[in-house]
Amino acid sequence: MHSLKRWAPAALLLLLGSCGTEEKETRVADYPKVVETFYHQYGFKPEGYQQLRFAKKREGWFVHVVDPLKGAVLRDFLYWPADSTAPRTLSGFSAPEGGLETDRAIESALRGNSTGYTYYGYERCRYYGYEEWDRDMIRTYGDRKQPGDTLLEGLGRAFSHYADRFLDHYETPDRPGLHPLQKGLAPLERPSQQRADSALYYYRKALAAFGKLRERNPSYTTLVGNMAMKVFNDGMHVWQRLSVNGYAQEAASILNEVKADDNIRRFAHNYLDACAPNSILFTYGDNDTYAIWYLQQKEGVRKDVTVINASLAGLPIYVDALRREGKVRFDLRPELYGRRDFSYAVQIPEGARGTEAVPQFIAGFNDRSSSPLPASSGTPEPMTYTASSLVLPVDAARFGQATQTAVSAGMLKWTLNRYITLDQVLMLNVIQRNIHERPIYFSFPDSFHGDQLMPAGTVYQLVPAGDNSEAIAQAGAERSRQLLKDRFQPLAASPAGKLAVPDRAGALPLNAYEPLIMHYVRRQDTATVKALVAEWRQKQTQSTGGAYNGLEVGLALASVGERESGLPLMKSALIAMRESVQRPSALGLRVGADDLKNYHDRVAEALERYGLSKTEIDSFLKEVR
Description:
By secondary structure, this protein is an alpha/beta fold. The chain is built from 23 helices and 16 strands.
């Protein structure tokens, strides 16, 4: 490993000459107010792939019209100056849509559905929502001696994001102030030692900021949980970034510094203990991935389970790392996933030819891996496909032997929409190559797989549909119940922040029990439903923190005649949803006004079926609206 001291002067170029400046603190309008005010004043009709984004800068709030494919800001307006109590009048925008369309635009902006910039980031970072936000944060506040808690977190996020840029494989347009070592790498290019050292320099600054915040205020809440959880996750993030880019020695050094407590171990075991030997587990976030990787990599626990993070599987460098490790079989060629035009593929509806088998679908992409890229500069046009659905025949005997799940001859099926992403293509290929040899699980009921995911404790097992689907569901429910009863470990409460507590930790018991409860509701097994709700409540009480949605369990209880215990659950869930609409929070449950109305309608219909009078239903809805 090269000495960090050798590269420190280059890394410090960002800070020289600009740090040490103090600015007068100005309280700007918060993000929800800016978004709501804008969309009640204006509408936005994009041309092509254009997006509207909000940028929080030193001067105030800007509105940007951007081309995300080119990474270019097409129009730039100072909308709400930092020293003003009201926004400016802008030109070039249409009149507001009004009604539900305005509500949907506001909700989309608050959720960050398409821009990649989140409400949470706007709340916690002084600058955010534009390309150089991390650099500006570091330049302005990087040497602040006693930053407040929120500013300290924002600095940690800025340092971490800035460090990521040295290892990023995205195309980076030239712009003023771009560090020469942050120009985007080719999809499968290994970063230089100098880039890795520079990244590590800033990663350590991020870890120091988060560590300081943990010491000062361990109960401080972040998007992933309390500060113990945040410090753990960011350490594992650094380990993962260095590992996947081929810097094993540096990654091992970081992993040696990362510490896990009992809650993190319980959290990981709750997933791993639900997985059969020699299985594959697809995960989706930080909390359901890093804890497992820690136990596997540092403590040697359940290394027979191959964990693939679906969020990372859209990155060619991560897919290539999976190929090099050789822990899971797939056929995608480096020449395919390393192409600049294969982050996603687009469906051609005019030539859609219906159903295609997964092996042929994968082979079709691989066959095009050697075709030359278009000569034009900029973002190349994506590859295309014509299938509207995919199928994969499953041999019942081989599947049953590999998974200990008895099925009749079945078929796995997927519906394709306008586009498919690299992570989904990899997932399909992994399933194709391993379905007859290894159980395949998911930490989240990914809608891409439809109703083919059978609850199995805290995870979901991929099972083909067949003529004995009810028998499969019942066998799965019995196994799932046994797992939850015998193996599930509630997380310990930690009000002082000494133990890591993931975001919405209390949701894990409910997420595991809800599909099981609903299965027995469909079977009209009242006694089992009541027993499962009692088990869930016990584990929920033992667990800690996190908002959760008990609406489905409340409805389930009402459906089996337990209205007295079901109605309070429904009421608390609907009130939480109402609060998220009326008083949005960067940490809160995000529910749109449309969604809330649909929930109200659904509950009203259910309560009518369960025997409540119109007066009782109206009284109930009045309390939650």
